């Protein structure tokens, strides 16, 4: 049984200039390559994606940034609630604008959102988590994730944010 409970409601939601503020992350890990033709221990980076509850395609965990938390805390919370993972929050990958069809309200009638996306090095996969009954998680290689990404803005966060960041910051592999 999961002791954690997902936050619900909009009463603590942050807004700025007509946009709902969102926090999320690209959870990642390293695994050793199983290439038998090589003597080197090549590391493969994988990212964790979750299913959408409103259609096909996969997503990275993200959700509303609330008034009683930092943007970093919101990103960590969303990773636990939606994907059931904990880890080390690394750098901010960037801010990504998108339009939500499902989250239009009186503060944001157009559904405009701005997401702060972070890299999260996964250290633990929880056996139970708040949204496990509605979410399935999948570890994917980068090419698989690019292909499976439901939203263009998340694909941009992966390619223009995470991949560029990782090219410079991959020294923690297997530490």
UniProtKB/TrEMBL annotation:
<keyword id="KW-0378">Hydrolase</keyword>
<keyword id="KW-0460">Magnesium</keyword>
<dbReference type="GO" id="GO:0016787">
    <property type="term" value="F:hydrolase activity"/>
</dbReference>
<feature type="domain" description="Nudix hydrolase">
    <location>
        <begin position="18"/>
        <end position="162"/>
    </location>
</feature>
<comment type="similarity">
    <text>Belongs to the Nudix hydrolase family.</text>
</comment>
<dbReference type="InterPro" id="IPR015797">
    <property type="entry name" value="NUDIX_hydrolase-like_dom_sf"/>
</dbReference>
<dbReference type="InterPro" id="IPR047198">
    <property type="entry name" value="DDP-like_NUDIX"/>
</dbReference>
<dbReference type="GO" id="GO:0046872">
    <property type="term" value="F:metal ion binding"/>
</dbReference>
<protein>
    <recommendedName>
        <fullName>Nudix hydrolase domain-containing protein</fullName>
    </recommendedName>
</protein>
<dbReference type="InterPro" id="IPR000086">
    <property type="entry name" value="NUDIX_hydrolase_dom"/>
</dbReference>
<dbReference type="Pfam" id="PF00293">
    <property type="entry name" value="NUDIX"/>
</dbReference>
<keyword id="KW-0479">Metal-binding</keyword>
<dbReference type="InterPro" id="IPR020084">
    <property type="entry name" value="NUDIX_hydrolase_CS"/>
</dbReference>
